[in-house]
Write a structure and sequence with these properties.
Layout (H helix, E strand, L loop, with lengths): L2 E3 L6 E7 L6 E5 L11 H9 L3 E5 L18 H9 L10 H14 L5 E6 L1 H12 L4 E7 L13 H8 L7 H15 L8 H14 L5 H12 L3 H4 L6 E6 L7 H10 L4 E5 L11 H14 L1
Parallel strand pairs: 3-4, 3-5, 5-6, 6-7, 7-8
Antiparallel strand pairs: 1-2, 2-4
Length: 296
């Protein structure tokens, strides 16, 4: 599939388009530092088989989409400190910019309305699409995401450290080992793939693209966006919140808080599920999303 330039933000996004173009579209929005390939092929196919056109894409600054090279984010410690003091520092781009990218992708593909499904940071982007582009959403699904409420339980230390640890080398074996450590740290305790299967998945992603410079800029955008609860009260899209009860990175309380903040939202939690999309849950998650979209 080609890259396409969004008419509103003028960002080049790489995307994949699956299924019958005449079927209702689902737009999948991925999370922090994650390529579109983290939406498993099996998950995409499960949605296609349920009667949807499925579009997944690389956010700006990751994968095969446009990189914001040369833009330096503030250091996390200073950004958090200045934000708490009421003086948020300038960031290279915001989550709202990324939500505008996603809406622009729909424009570029001549799609007026779509079901929008976002995971983790992608859930935040999807939430902001529902806030700033409400007329574009047929429904919203927020997966293991959060409102930005600062009073929520924080990530487990080992999970956050693994996710934000710097790469010590860009050699393939070092990057694969790093990716496997991250997946082991944040993944589902009840659905752990074998080392062989995990390595195969990570290697495929690494050979597609390696771009660690984008992660701190995306993280800066998350911090800059702050608490979304006040904005989420205006969301009118029918909303489903999916969250793992054993997520070490974005605790299940964040999913509960998201469902409370969005009027009429329905919350589904799953025991043993962490901060990944295990193949064992493919049918369950696809069915929840498909049923929600069709009801909407």
């Amino acid at each position: 599939m080609p890259a396409i330039t969004t008419p509103n933000t003028q960002i080049e996004l790489f995307y994949e388009d699956h299924g019958d173009p005449a079927h209702p579209p689902i737009l999948l929005v991925m999370g922090l530092g994650a390529q579109l390939t983290l939406w498993p092929d099996e998950f995409v196919e499960a949605l296609v088989q349920r009667g949807f056109r499925v579009i997944r894409f690389d956010n700006r600054d990751i994968g095969l989409s446009q990189k914001m090279a040369g833009e330096r984010p503030p250091k996390v410690v200073w950004q958090v400190l200045w934000t708490k003091l009421g003086f948020p520092p300038r960031v290279p781009y915001t989550l709202t910019d990324m939500a505008d990218d996603a809406a622009g992708l729909l424009d570029a593909l001549a799609i007026d309305h779509a079901h929008v499904v976002g995971a983790s940071m992608g859930g935040m982007i999807a939430q902001l699409m529902a806030v700033h582009h409400p007329e574009r959403l047929l429904s919203l699904t927020s997966i293991f995401s959060t409102t930005g409420n600062p009073k929520l339980p924080q990530a487990e230390k080992h999970a956050m450290e693994a996710l934000t640890a710097p790469l010590k080398s860009l050699e393939e074996e070092a990057v694969v080992a790093h990716g496997m450590r991250v997946q082991r740290a944040i993944g589902s305790p009840a659905y752990r793939p074998s080392d062989e299967k995990l390595r195969e998945r990570v290697l495929k992603t690494v050979r597609r693209s390696v771009y660690p410079d984008g992660l701190p800029r995306q993280l800066a955008a998350i911090i800059e966006d702050g608490d979304r609860r006040g904005r989420l009260g205006a969301v009118t899209a029918p909303t489903l919140v999916l969250h793992g009860e054993d997520d070490p990175l974005v605790k299940v309380e964040a999913g509960e808080d998201t469902a409370m903040a969005i009027p009429g939202a329905r919350l589904v939690t799953i025991p043993g599920w962490g901060h990944d999309l295990p193949l064992e849950l493919t049918d369950r998650l696809a069915q929840e999303i498909a049923a929600h979209a069709k009801a909407a």
